[in-house]
């Protein structure tokens, strides 16, 4: 460490810590997505980032720390319910929500690819995906009940939210193979009509 508090670069010159860390993370994201976590040595990450290998270990003592940092970068801000809800129209409200979710996927395709790829072998990644799924179920349920508050009284909105969350998660998992998510207009209309007809049994906590 230099007197400036920044790590030394090649030849002892001071480097910008924030931009160096970002370059390392970006290189790790690309290489993990291309080759997998286990098959990517830190030397390749350093080469891709254009930094000495020692700087990779300066910022991330162990290679799993790189993966943990990438998981932490995953967008996790909920979509504002009011931003997508059309009062009285569940199908249109859900179409808007799914459109917002697809846009977020498009903003970080490499990171999404990486997380789906590594979920089977890394608990931290798996937990992050489970957390995302649970948040998605909650968002969908909130949109349904905001669009039609009466639906929760006579239909199973919990199961509907989980079913749609599973469908969206599947679409996003195959998008990593280059497939563009197709519109879900018919499916969302079907789901909205089923709820309007009182499909399923409402959760025991639903208001009556």
From TrEMBL:
Superkingdom to which the source organism belongs: Bacteria
Transmembrane intervals: none
A Pfam family: TetR_N
Protein name listed in UniProt: TetR family transcriptional regulator
DNA-binding region: 41-60
InterPro entries, A to Z: Homeodomain-like_sf (IPR009057), HTH-type_TetR-like_transc_reg (IPR050109), HTH_TetR (IPR001647), Tet_transcr_reg_TetR-rel_C_sf (IPR036271)
Keywords assigned: DNA-binding, Transcription, Transcription regulation
UniProt-listed SUPFAM superfamilies: Homeodomain-like (SSF46689), Tetracyclin repressor-like, C-terminal domain (SSF48498)
UniProt GO MF annotations: DNA-binding transcription factor activity; transcription cis-regulatory region binding
Originating species: Longimycelium tulufanense
Domain HTH tetR-type: 18-78
């Amino acid at each position: 460490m230099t007197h400036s508090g920044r790590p030394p670069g090649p030849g002892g010159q001071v480097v910008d810590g924030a931009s160096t860390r970002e370059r390392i993370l970006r290189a790790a994201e690309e290489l993990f997505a291309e080759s997998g976590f286990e098959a990517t040595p830190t030397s390749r990450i350093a080469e891709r980032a254009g930094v000495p290998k020692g700087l990779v270990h300066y910022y991330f003592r162990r290679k799993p720390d790189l993966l943990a940092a990438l998981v932490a970068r995953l967008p996790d801000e909920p979509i504002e319910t009011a931003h997508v809800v059309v009062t009285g129209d569940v199908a249109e409200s859900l179409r808007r929500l799914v459109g917002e979710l697809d846009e977020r996927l498009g903003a970080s395709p490499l990171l999404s690819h990486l997380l789906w790829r590594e979920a089977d072998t890394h608990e931290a990644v798996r937990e992050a995906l489970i957390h995302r799924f649970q948040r998605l179920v909650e968002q969908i349920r909130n949109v349904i009940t905001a669009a039609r508050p009466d639906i929760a009284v006579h239909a199973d909105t919990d199961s509907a939210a989980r079913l749609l969350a599973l469908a969206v998660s599947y679409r996003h998992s195959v998008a990593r193979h280059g497939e563009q998510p197709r519109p879900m207009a018919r499916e969302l209309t079907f789901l909205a009509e089923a709820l309007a007809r009182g499909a399923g049994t409402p959760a025991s906590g639903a208001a009556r």
